[in-house]
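agent> fetching stored inputs for the D-glutamic acid docking request
agent> found them:
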Amino acid sequence: MTAITLNPTQQTLRPVLVFDSGIGGLTVLREARVLMPERGFIYIADDAGFPYGGWEEDALRARILALFAQLLDTYQPEICIIACNTAFTLAGADLRAKFPDMTFVGTVPAIKPAAERTRSGLVSVLATPGTVKRAYTRDLIQSFASQCHVRLVGSENLARMAEAWIRGEPISDDAVLAEISPCFIEDQGKRTDIVVLACTHYPFMVNIFRRLAPWPVDWLDPAEAIARQARRKVELVQGAEHPDGFDFAVFTSGQPNFTTRRLMQGFGLKMSASAP
Ligand code: DGL
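agent> prediction call returned; pasting tokens
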């Protein structure tokens, strides 16, 4: 990547906007910040629409497009990272078509790297019900994993459970196990060896998954790869420093509770007072 030198009289660099339905996108934000330390970050959680997993497709697409019309206008980011499989597999192409001047870095189920790495040929994709039923996901399997047996596991509850867990609420092992069990297949002496974490909420729970898994597997978290892709798209400006105290989070409900506000502080994000 070519680096340009910052002229002190230039405007402050435009921020990076990271979007998810809830707090799952924080798993991507923490990687992105490491790779783009000179950039300010705005984290948007559409918690008023959470969870996205069960939405009807046309309604969710319309919601996301309307929201971005507002977000781009208000925050003028340099780039948007859609840190949500459920949103991007549905509306990624529409976002790019509707806002051609904006760069969108997406999140899609990491089926290609899983197919490249599996030894047994048995791969599972753990995602929201929305992501599992997307044509986008089926196309990824057809294009990159036709030689594998890919099991799609749509979880009704894990995104909510991850939200509860990261906020410090207890969750039961039995409930988690019930959600991840369908990922584990044994067939003719072979076993699933990779589970794709195809919802950005799930990496928060990966240590629980590891503890409860019937046998060890590789849990594939795409966060770092997404951050690297974003870094490739955002020019590295030599000499630029992170704008002091800039990073903030916006919740579309306008009413994040106390534990959510604390969580955001933990991630170095101030809370913006208003909904977008
Ligand atoms: N974090 C989102 C994803 O990556 C989905 C969570 C939800 O809203 O259901 O798919």
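agent> quick read of the result: The chain has two domains: 15-107+224-271, 111-221.
agent> awaiting further instructions
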